Amino acid sequence: MGADTSGRGVIRRAVAGQRRDVAVGSLLGAAHQTGEALVPVLIGLIVDRAVVRPDGGALALWLVVLALVYAMLSYGFRFGARAGERAAEQAAHHLRLDVVRRVLAPHGGAEAGRPPGALVNVATEDARRVGALNMALTLGIAAVVGVVAGAVLLLRASVPLGLLVLVGAPALMALGHCLARPLEHRSEAEQERAAHASGVAADLVAGVRVLKGLRAEHAAVARYRATSRASRDANVRAARAAALQTGLMLTLTGAFIALVALVGGRLVLSGSIGLGALVSAVGLALFLPGPIAVLAWVGAELAKARASAARIADVLAAPGETTGGTAEPATAPAATGPAPAATTGAPPSGELRLHRLGHGGLDGIDLTVRAGEHLGIVVTDTADAATLLRCLARRCDPDRGRVELDGTPFTELAPAALRATLLVAEHDAQLFDGTLLDNVTAAAPAGADPHPAMEAAAVDEVAATLPGGTAGRIGERGSTLSGGQRQRVALARALAADRTVLVVHDPTTAVDAATEARIATGIRRVRSGRTTVLVTSSPALLAATDRVVLIDGGTVTAEAPHEALVRDHPVYRSAVLT
């Protein structure tokens, strides 16, 4: 992936994408903080120029100035906070889209080892925390301006007090950063536990029917109770760390302000500053805890954001699908029900070639699948079959050799365009909660008739068993269907997708012999004239192919029609008949 997917990269992208709102919010927030700092100074001036020496005109003038400053700080806070909140929400929204897009990417791999609940937690709470850093940054910059403004105004009133603030405020900020480190670790642990609890809950809800069937409800409840308690304990530890950090920062801030007030009082007693300056100094001393506390809060938010950014980065940086290639396949996706190339006069399209392919247990596979051919492949090692399917689906690129579609290597083809032309329907294809028809037509071209594919896969029999027929719901992951019925629906979906090249892996392992024979004939009929590869050991499916290729020991050892291989090849006979 080209973008920086480290934790820092996630934070940098979240802030950079909203820099305009952050800049506007920071500017308006700075105006608010400057106004806050000016208020005690103006009150001190009013005391000196209109109270100590009574002057009604000067009092009215300075009261108008004070009102204008109040209006500036009020509107600065309102619109600055609005810009900061918008930046936070927009950044969180974009991060959620990034995470969801990564999780939903075909063969993305981001979901590997992560339960659905954990991914939901990353896409919601973690994204919110990282996005909230924009608001924290907006308020933090404004708070820095407030501290600097307060220090400058104090320097004008008294150099010793100003220097004390200039030295003490950065020291407090550095100390707050150090105190936030334990909070960062506790926050990360809290999010991990919360995500795990969400994942366990999602798994239990998804499998509630199975749990009830096994009478394992009590064990499931005990498991979730233990996970929930661990999440609660992690949350309590994080809250304690946050409370400790906040309490220590408030204590240190109070001690710092008391020191400022003490020094200011001694200066007044010595005659170094007047009554108005004293009022200003005391007012500024009371003002300073606000921006300093905001800086401490910003440190805590940064700690939480860094922990959440690391979790988001783990998802975004998960080993994903292969990328690269910009060429379009020479074959366009075939229209529904195309006639064979021989009858239309069109040149052949959909030729698939493996040239000296080597990956995993596969070693030097040379194989050409002619356009429009109905080919069977028998692989004696299930691991080799899985590797072959991964290479054909381009979930990985082979270590050696290449795979070509109509003479163009897979690596030169745009992945999305390749998948629009070639579909690998794997054995464990998942169904979703919806109607039977929705599942079959999920990848079908718009306006295509799904019934030929449903008839070829014997899904019409499945529809007859459902209330509502094809409009009947099949439950999450097809939970209302049997294993064989789920296989037939998945096969119908692959056939209805109507790709130029279709690779199917073991589509009938849970189907009875009579239905399997019907499906073999149906696949042959609905895929007439288009390239079809069946990776299977089913004699019924193999008997309906043009030829069969045997891969044994990672290499092609025989190829011939099914009947000839059954008669003449012992390894093949053993693989498909036992």
From TrEMBL:
Location(s), subcellular: Cell membrane
Region (Disordered): 320-348
Record-annotated ABC transmembrane type-1 domain positions: 23-304
Membrane topology (UniProt): Multi-pass membrane protein
Sequence intervals crossing the membrane: 22-47, 59-77, 136-155, 161-180, 247-269, 275-298
Keywords, comma-separated and alphabetical: ATP-binding, Membrane, Nucleotide-binding, Transmembrane, Transmembrane helix
Record-level Gene Ontology MF annotations: ATP binding
Keyword Disulfide bond set for record: no
Main subcellular localisation: membrane
SUPFAM superfamilies, A to Z: ABC transporter transmembrane region, P-loop containing nucleoside triphosphate hydrolases
Pfam family, one: ABC_tran
Domain ABC transporter: 347-578
PANTHER family: ATP-BINDING CASSETTE SUB-FAMILY B (PTHR24221), ATP-BINDING CASSETTE SUB-FAMILY B MEMBER 6 (PTHR24221:SF654)
Protein name, per record: ABC transporter ATP-binding protein
Natural source organism: Streptomyces rhizosphaericola
